[in-house]
Amino acid sequence: MSKTQYAMVMDLNKCLGCQTCTVACKKLWTDGDGMGYMYWNNVETRPGKGYPAGWSDGGGGFRKGQLVPGEIPPLEKYGVPFEYDYSQRLFEGKGKPVMPHVDPQYGPNWEEDVGETDREENFYFYLPRICNHCTHPSCLEACPRNAIYKREEDGIVLIDQERCRGYRQCVRACPYKKIYMNEVAGVSQKCIFCYPRLAKGTPNACAKQCPGRLRFVGLLGDPESPVHKLVRVYRVALPLLPGKGTGPNVYYVPPFNPPRRGNYGKGILEDPRIPWRILEDLFGPPVKEVALRLEAELSKAQSGEKSEVLQLLIGRDDEVRYRIPATKDAAG
């Protein structure tokens, strides 16, 4: 157990699906040998298979306190790395837009904007994902080399690259499939929550570069941090796959779920735009209560009353979205 815990809250109502966060992370952390297929941060369209494909059904985590074995996804489920042939893609060439030696069949957010259709109406939302830096990391429990550890000073989960031997039991155990095997280096690698940036008082690259201003960063135990307020005070942010027993420390404000529009002049229907089962599969049964609470706050704001939680979620300024104190002064 750590004395403090950094956490992140992502407001799914503000995600543009622009992948700026993905590019920021990729350029900073995963442009080395053996990392071509890795996206420590990715943004996937839901409903969809995600990245790697089918990760939410890949097992892992805990059941009644015991590790649950999961799958080790093959490279094809992540997407075989490929390079664009820019002469074809950007200059109206007649050939394939990728280099000829690769025929990609899947990749991060391969299903962008596809979603599903409910009675002839398409719906989808974006789901950004990073390592959850869990309170009870199943990857740590599964590692036979004790190479994975949770930092006492901030709760960030890291892999000791000197101890790791690439056994991949961490990949098997992670229910979010957010640990990746580097075949070149022979070790597992993952999101480090940009701890070198935090040490300098700078937010995570994915959060800082987000044009939608949807990410909030701080310490869960700090009453002044935005994540504390959203998770513990206003209770509008939920973890992903809470039933896996790992205690994720990345939280999501669920998307507003207004009524579906009727076809052929039938007006507004009572059915929600996104079937509740899809949101409940990701965030658990409380998601409906949270979404309805957010709708009530929105109605209050539209009537001219002040909504503190919506004002916080607007997050115009860095000072509102991020609170990154020195570690020795951090609240637990």
How many independent structural domains?
Answer: 1
Q: Unreliable segments (pLDDT under 50, ≥5 consecutive)?
A: 328-332
Average predicted confidence as pLDDT: 91
Give me the CATH architecture, please.
2-Layer Sandwich
Order of helices and strands: EHEEEHHEEEHEEHEEHHEHEEEEHHHH
The backbone outline, from C-alpha atoms, is globular
Helical fraction equals: 10-25%
Rg for CA atoms: 20 Å
List the strand order in the largest sheet: 12-1-14-13
CATH topology tier name = Alpha-Beta Plaits
Can you give a write-up of this model?
The chain has 332 residues and is α+β, with helices and mostly antiparallel strands. The chain has a single domain (6-329), classed as Alpha-Beta Plaits, CATH 3.30.70. 24% of the residues lie in helices and 18% in strands. The strands form seven sheets. The chain has a four-stranded mixed β-sheet. The protein has a two-stranded antiparallel ribbon with strand order 2-7. Strands 3-4 form a two-stranded antiparallel ribbon. The chain is globular, with a radius of gyration of 20 Å. The termini are close together. The model is unreliable at 328-332 (pLDDT under 50).
How would you describe this structure in keywords?
332 residues; alpha+beta; Alpha-Beta Plaits; four-stranded mixed beta sheet; two-stranded antiparallel sheet; 24% helix
In short:
The model is unreliable at 328-332 (pLDDT under 50).
